[in-house]
Design a protein that fits this description.
alpha/beta, Metallo-beta-lactamase, Chain A, eight-stranded mixed sheet
């Protein structure tokens, strides 16, 4: 099985550049300092076919899909329901229409599903007669691994302030966003992971997110081969911060694709800055 993680967005809730900010990172011409809201797409090749698992549906999901070129997903996983991670739910309608109006399977903690059903009540209202919406089938999980499109997904529980957030492991790749604490039990669930995408908001401590030093320590404890950081704010300039990191760790960036190959090796599909257009041709 080959598991690839594509970083659709690597930015914090305000994105980078931030509206109205004149700092050197927000004004940077480097495309790798331009960050949409954090989300990833798992592309998993198993038995000769590709499954696409979208993690979170950000307010930027329309642009992310156009830029990435994906037009269908096999499922959506929700980490939690802060606005920057789920308020693009309505934009799934284009994927729903393009998929022959087959309801999209969405998985989340019980409280996440309940929150979505309240915030987007019209999407889940069977009597709502406007046809221009997506239809979504919801599924809940707790601590046990569950099956999605023929794949085993292992939830990785983490803490985000006063709420729980779900990270996800598929094969030897994992994604964790929005956390200030990865419990020891979750570190154990990460053992054997070779590729990790992990929250690291900034250099200084933060009450609800990991700092860069904290995230590095979690990656070391888990023993991962490669880690890329995400949910990054404008405190972290791509090139200057990367020059200070150990070889196994780097800041992630929008459109980065890294994979655990069938032979177990980790491959980074590096995209040069000149190859980061706002929108690429659909494929």
């Amino acid at each position: 099985m080959r598991v690839e993680i594509e970083m659709l967005g690597s930015g914090t809730s305000a994105g980078v550049p931030m509206i109205g900010c004149e700092c050197w990172v927000c004004r940077s011409p480097n495309p790798r300092n331009k960050r949409l809201r954090a989300s990833v797409l798992f592309r998993v090749v198993k038995d000769g076919s590709e499954r696409r698992i979208l993690v979170d549906v950000t307010p930027d999901v329309r642009l992310q899909a156009l830029r990435s070129g994906f037009t269908s997903v096999d499922a959506v996983l929700i980490t939690h329901t802060h606005a920057d991670h789920c308020h693009g739910l309505d934009d799934l309608r284009a994927i729903y229409w393009g998929g022959g109006k087959k309801p999209i399977d969405l998985y989340g903690y019980p409280e996440s599903v309940a929150s979505l059903r309240q915030t987007f009540a019209y999407i889940f209202d069977e009597d709502y007669d406007y046809k221009g919406i997506a239809r979504i089938n919801t599924h809940v999980f707790e601590h046990e691994p569950f099956r999605v499109a023929g794949l085993t997904v292992t939830p990785i529980p983490v803490v985000h302030g006063n709420m729980r957030v779900a990270g996800f492991r598929i094969g030897d790749a994992a994604y964790i966003t929005d956390t200030n604490l990865v419990p020891e039990s979750s570190i154990e669930l990460l053992k054997g992971v070779k590729l990790l995408v992990l929250d690291a908001l900034r250099r200084a401590p933060h009450p609800t997110h990991m700092s860069l030093p904290q995230a590095l320590e979690v990656a070391r404890q888990a023993g991962v081969e490669r880690v890329f950081f995400t949910h990054i704010n404008h405190d972290l300039e791509h090139e200057s911060i990367n020059s200070t990191l150990p070889p196994f760790a780097r800041l992630g960036y929008d459109m980065l694709r890294a994979s655990v190959e069938e032979d177990g090796s980790v491959k980074v599909h590096d995209i040069e800055p000149s190859g980061l257009p706002p929108i690429v041709a659909l494929r």
